[in-house]
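Supplementary Methods, section 5.1.

A reviewer requested that the exact input to the structure prediction be made available. We therefore reproduce it here, unchanged from the version used in the analyses.
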Amino acid sequence: MNTGLFITFEGIDGAGKSTQLDYAVNYLRSQKKEVVQTREPGGTIFSEKLRSMILEAKTPLDSDTEVLLMFAARKEHITRVIQPALNSGSIVVCDRFTDATFAYQGGGSRVPPSRIETLEAWVQGNFQPHLTLFFDLPIEIAQRRMGQRKKDRFESEAMDFHERVRHAYLDRAHKHPDRIKVIDSSRTKSQIREMVQVELDRICN
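The structure derived from this sequence is encoded cell-by-cell as follows.
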C-alpha cells in the first residue's frame, strides 16, 4: 500500500519546469519532508542508458520504437525507485512521466494514443501521479527563452512539433483536471513559485 506522494512536473521545453522543480524539492525539504528527486526517461542505471540512446540518437528512431523504449525505462524506474520510495513514505518528485509520452510521442510524433494507452495499462496498471504540474507557455516565448543553449533531439524539433506537444499536454489537462494543474509560465518566477507552493501545500498538508 502506497503511503507516500508521487508528484510529477511536466512542460514544454523552455517553460521553466526544471527551475520550478528544483524550487519545489527545496521547499518540501524545508518543510521537513522526505523527498526523492528523479527524472524520466532515467532514474536508474538502465533507464539512464536508454535516455542517452533516445535523446542522443544521431538518426531519428522509429516512433513506435521510441515509445517502447520509454516504457521499458519507465517500468524499471517504477519498480526500482518510485514504488519503493512511496512505500517508505517519501514524496517522489519526478521530472516528466507518462503525460510526456502522450505529449511528445503521441502529440509531437503522432503515435496513436491507443498504443500508448495499451502500454500504460500494461506497465502501470492504475498507478498514476497524485499531482501533476504542467507549465504552459506559448511556443514562441518558450523558444526565445531557450536561446542558444545546446538542445537535445526533441528541443531541436520544428515549431509545429512543439505546437502539437503543447496541445497534447493541454488536452491531457482537460481530461484529467483533478490531477493535472496548469501553471501559467508567462508570469514572473516569484508568481509561479507561489502557485507551485499553493499546490504543494494543498496536497502535502
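The chain has eight helices and five strands. These observations are discussed further in the main text.
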